Amino acid sequence: MNETDQGYLLPCGRDVEAVWDRLDEIDAHELECPHCLGARESLRALRAATEEMALDTEEPSRALFGRIMSAVRAEVRRGEVLPVPSDDAGPIHVSGRAIAAVLRFAADTVPGVRARHCHVVARIDVIDVALKLAVSHVNLTVDVVDVVRERVTAAASARVGVRVNRLDITVEDLYDL
After folding, report:
1. Up-side HSE of residue 94: CA atoms within 13 Å toward CB?
2. Span 77-105, mean pLDDT?
3. Which of 83, 126, 129, 155 would give a disulfide with 165, using CB separation of 3.0 to 4.6 Å?
């Protein structure tokens, strides 16, 4: 039997799925077995938590959404490493994802703007940036992209130490507040 055909077996040999299927019933083995009793207790807690979550109709807060998106953006993989000019210590190499994170954060400081994706390409002493945004329909004005451009360009210079050669900004979505 391969692993996909078999569930998780408890040390006593019972399948957890079988315990789950009989959660409201109990046999002689399960009355005496510490493994089955422990699994039953955990599965009952899981079922209670799931039922409670299913009944919860409250929308998650925007702060929770922001924390989740920050975690998603903070991927562990470094990606491409880009050279950053430095007078003091010689050449420094910084993760392209780290630079993109700084630039996304700068875009996110504009009211009603959420940076969705940022791709950075290193050129000789400059970077090219492609930035995709979602903008609140309330904040969608002619100037919003100009403000994002100013903040991203300033952050690249002040926070990273590189000059932006090209900054392509795409508003790819509108959202409600």
Report:
1. 20
2. 75
3. 126
Question: How long a stretch of residues is the chain?
Answer: 177
Instruction: Quick: pLDDT tens for 105-153.
Output: 999 999 999 999 999 988 877 899 999 999 998 878 889 999 999 999 9
Task: Please enumerate in sequence order all residues whose Cβ is within 8 A of that of 100, keeping only pairs 6 or more positions apart, or say none.
Answer: 118, 119, 120
Q: Which residues contact 177 (CB under 8 A, 6 or more apart)?
A: 112, 136, 138
Number of neighbours of residue 152 by Cβ within 10 angstroms: 25
Instruction: Identify whether the C-beta of residue 175 lies closer than 8 Å to the C-beta of residue 134.
Output: yes
What is the β-pairing status of strands 126-136 and 163-175?
parallel
| Pairing mode, strands 113-122 and 126-136 | antiparallel
DSSP string, 44-98: HHHHHHHHHHHH--PPPPHHHHHHHHHHHHS-S---SEEEE--SSSS-EEEEHHH
Place of tokens 């996110």: 108
